């Protein structure tokens, strides 16, 4: 009597496992999404610069935002209609919900920047649930990082301009309300928190939400396909998985708008902090 | 940017960004003093300094949050 061969060992892992070929017979197992799903083969290259899907999406959303607002306001009318009406609603939303609560009326000159920021991030995120492209480019850390560096440079520069380089660093390093004898221990935390942690969390919040959302969608989309091809009884599980995909997609719509909103709100908050020291 | 608080905002009323600030204090305290603790532990070989630094950092961050948000 020979040694029992484990069924698992008997299955040889096929060398060419794609999500589409993953069913019971292929021996591929469940094609769990991995970090490789966030890297794409370049569409084309300009010299050593490779253009892939995420760059395409960023370029596309920039073009959409610019074209839409240009189209809406190239011949502005006193009584707004059509695209101008929608664009004005968007701008008023940014002004009343994001800018005014943080910066007040005097901060209205930041409206173009915050409007662009909000709509750029939002449109970018929407590509995460748009069929065919189906990828939120903000789930690659470089993009939120670039936005954050821009915001960081703005509020650091603004703070030094309005409070003076020394005064700004004093306000950024001395925590309010603390007794003097504990200050030597607290100053490093305040400085570290203001200069590194706050901008870092700003970018990570957007990046992590988009990454997690995309992985979640991938897991259940792949599960729907995999369970459908495993064996007949799993068709119910496949249906449940498909319903989950729809529910998560709905949740993603909410999160995409919310993350763009939070990013713009915190940017406005940091700019406000550069004008006057936080108390 | 306007003096004396922002419009529609009572002084001393919590703002939505306060929550993020508290989070950044906790993270900052933990990472900074945990990092210092880790470095010193690395150099001296006293491994316990790393967790001590982290806990000290969190403790200081909590103290800072109390100073900032309760005594204004």
Tell me what the structure shows:
The complex is a heterodimer of chains A (279) and B (72). Chain A contains eight helices and two strands. Chain A has 279 residues and is an all-alpha fold. Chain B has 72 residues and is an all-alpha fold. Helices cover 71% and strands 0% of the residues of chain B. Chain B has helices spanning 16-44, 49-70. Chains A and B meet through helix 3, helix 7 and helix 8 of A and helix 1 and helix 2 of B.
- Most residues in contact, chain pair and counts: A-B, 33 and 30 residues
The amount of beta strand of chain A, in percent, is: under 5%
Oligomer: heterodimer
Mean pLDDT of chain B: 81
Q: Walk across the major sheet of chain A and give the strand order.
A: 1-2
Largest sheet of chain A: 2 strands, antiparallel
Q: Strand-and-helix sequence of chain A, N→C?
A: HEEHHHHHHH
What's the count of strands of chain B? 0
Shape of chain A: globular
Total DSSP E strands of chain A: 2
Classify the secondary structure makeup of chain B into a structural class: mainly alpha
DSSP helix count of chain A? 8
Helix content of chain B: over 70%
Keywords:
heterodimer, A: 279 residues, mainly alpha, two-stranded antiparallel ribbon, 8 helices, 2 strands, 65% helix, globular, disordered N terminus, B: 72 residues, 2 helices, 0% strand
Helix and strand topology:
The complex is a heterodimer of chains A (279) and B (72).
Chain A lengths: L6 H4 L33 E3 L2 E3 L1 H21 L9 H21 L7 H16 L15 H22 L1 H9 L9 H48 L4 H41 L4
Antiparallel strand pairs in A: 1-2
Chain B lengths: L15 H29 L4 H22 L2
